Amino acid sequence: MTSLPRLLALPLLTLLVACAAQPKTDHPMSELDFIQGDVRVTEHRQGDDLLSAGLGQAGLAGLLTPFANPLDPTAAEVRRRAIQSSWKGIADLGPLGGFGSIYGGVPPVPGREYQSFARIHGAHAPHRVLVQVPDQFDRKHRCLVVTASSGSRGIYGAIALAGAWGLPRGCAVAYTDKGTGAGYFDFADDTGVALDGRRAQRGSLPLEFEPAPASRASGIAIKHLHSGDNPEADWGRHVLQAARFGLAMLDRAFPDQAPFTAQNTRIIATGLSNGGGAVLQAAGLDDDHLLSGVIALEPNVHVRGQGRALYDYATEASIWLPCALMDARFAQSPMARGAGGMPMPAWPIRCASLRAQGLVSGDSLTAQAAQSYEHLRAQGWSENAMAVAATSTAFDLWRAITAGYASAYLRRAADNMPCGFRYATLGPGGLPGISDPATRATWWSDGSGIPPGNGIGLYGGMDASADPTLSGVRCLRALWDGSDATAQALRAGVDATAARLPRKDLPLWVLHGEDDGLLPVVFTSMPYVDWLRASGRRPIYWRVPYAQHFDAFLPLPGFGDRHVPMLPYGYAALDRLWSHLFEAGAWQDDWPTPAARPRGAGSLDRAALGLP
Q1: Prior bond to 452 cis, omega within 30?
Q2: What gap in Å lies between CA 155 and CA 79, rounded to an integer?
Q3: Is 273 a catalytic residue?
Q4: CA nearest 455: which of 477, 474, 430?
């Protein structure tokens, strides 16, 4: 519910923004025809800041900060918790991980934030754009870092990469949520999320996502999945809009130094996972030469006719990996076994289901697991990727991802998802229910952008068999393998996400963990880099040994001792790009990949990273 003081504050805020010093210049970046409504300007100093909202590294690593009034948190409280959740979802802040001592850090960075909604031409829903301008902006080395959220996270979803590197250096940082985020719309009370991150009724304020009216029984609508836009196809455009927004907000922040343009301000694009895919999409669309360089970590990147699309191998994984991970070679892999080393209860059942449906022929669990393993190996999966993918399988990520992405690719509404899936609030006994206001108030700050989680469940796509999820995931797989109109439409939606070639002179660096089990290198970055090289481009490519996809998983038992984090390699690449752009440092495509090694049972040391 929107409070009266909040409504009264909005006209004042609009007036303050309108009265901000505007440079009189004909530079085209000032024409923000893609911005919807107001630009919200906030200041962050004296116990608050841009990088950690005043929490510092210890506060970020601690328990989620509570709201003083759980039913009506302030905008500042929601922002602080969103920043904290974004850090926790991306970085390893654990005591053994080395963040803040071996690499990275969270110094206080006072400054201003400029935030608004932006819209791609023809899109149904906006994407958020936010620019952080540090007080100590380096006016001699004018730098703007532009980034997109990882996964389906909200606007701060790349702060641990782009913010942590750029803000302490004196760069401004422009973010986009790329049409994703946790601006969930609840049909039960007809509320969504306003620009300040708090819940508001339909029609009372502009909302991050406002689907067409539907019945209260329609559950929860998710912007990434139910906007009708297939936002992944526009991720590159989102990034380029964020860059233009960043230049214009620098004009506002420093009118005496305006105009800020791509000719006098270096724009560095960086992102990881889906954010990495977004900046690579932007590189291929950058006809105006906005970008000075691109650093992509663990990118979800798709090239037509090469590699494999995420939907393809994720639907395959959701069917086959539960059984394949029963193979004895994975007995010591983290999350491949449950308590006491016993198999995960559902996985032997999956082997039996595959046998019953004629997908494997072995008469024993051992034979069925071996055949499932060999099937995945034949499809290109490495043994290391499968071992690390035990976490995604145990957390049921494959089904969550593909059920949601199918809806996005097919541009379906919340009450018309393919294969009978839907989202609803978790009620008593795990059944669909009605959300309470306190839980609803945490969605924007805590949500990952795709449920289940935070009191929202994924329902449907199940039957009453001993293996209830198999029918749904096989239905999702049929949308990739099938020939009917729906399957053709889904594949067309995936095809629309394909990257284009960047210009030849664009410095571009792709980094990927050799052990990535969510976005395996052989399906994603490797075919992309091969395609670039065959097309006359000269990207730098690091396949980092012993690195996997989720730095935030490294504190889990058995994970950190086997792997190294990816963030320090991203920071190192950004350092070298900075040196190239501002200090005439060399840019060569044969820099050797660091000889990383597992950190072991102790804390991370710099030698394990293999960095110079």
Answers
A1: yes
A2: 10
A3: yes
A4: 430
> Among residues 85, 86, 273, 392, which one is catalytic?
273
| Cβ–Cβ under 8 Å, residues 104 and 568 | yes
What SS3 string covers 316-369?
HHHHHHHHHCCCHHHCCCCCCECHHHCECCHHHHHHHHHHHCCCCCCCCHHHHH
pLDDT in tens, 346-358: 999 999 999 999 9
- The 10s digit of each residue's pLDDT in 280-326 is 999 999 999 999 999 999 999 999 999 999 999 999 999 999 999 99
Helix (H) or strand (E) holding 38: strand 35-44
Interatomic CA distance for residues 49 and 232, integer angstroms:
31
Asked whether the beta carbons of 326 and 348 are under 8 A apart, the reply is yes
What is the dihedral angle through the alpha carbons of 52, 58, 63, 68, rounded to the nearest 10 degrees? Answer: -60
**Residue 324: which residues within 8 A CB-CB, separation 6 or more?**
330, 369, 372, 373, 375, 376, 386
Distance from C-alpha of 82 to C-alpha of 480, rounded to nearest angstrom: 35
Closest to 402 measured CA to CA, from 490, 463, 325:
490
How many residues does the structure list for the chain? Answer: 612
Strands (E), 170-239: 172-176, 185-186, 191-193, 199-201, 220-221
Instruction: Tell the burial category of 291 from Cβ atoms under 10 Å away from its Cβ (0-12, 13-18, 19+).
Output: buried
This prediction's pTM: 0.94
Long-range contacts of 303-307 (CB under 8 A, 24+ apart): 303/498, 303/499, 303/527, 303/528, 303/531, 304/495, 304/498, 306/527, 306/528, 306/530, 306/531, 307/522, 307/523, 307/524, 307/526, 307/527, 307/528
Any idea which residue has 């985020």 for tokens? 181
Question: Hey, what are 295's tokens?
Answer: 């650093």
Burial 23-50 (b: 16+ CB within 10 A, else e): beeebebbebebbeebbbbeebeeebbb
Distance CA 88, CA 611 (A): 24
Q: What distances in angstroms separate CA 308 from CA 171, 429, 495, 508, 526, one per listed residue?
A: 36, 39, 11, 22, 11
Query: Which residue is listed with tokens 């494997």?
Result: 360
First vs last C-alpha separation in the chain: 54
Helix (H) or strand (E) holding 473: helix 470-481
Using the CB atoms, write b or e for 186-217: b if 16+ within 10 Å: bbbeebbbbbbbbbbeeeebbbbbbbeebeee
User: Helices in 176-254 by DSSP H: which ranges?
Assistant: 223-226, 235-253
Model confidence pLDDT, tens digit, residues 70-119: 999 999 999 999 999 999 999 999 999 999 999 999 999 999 999 999 99
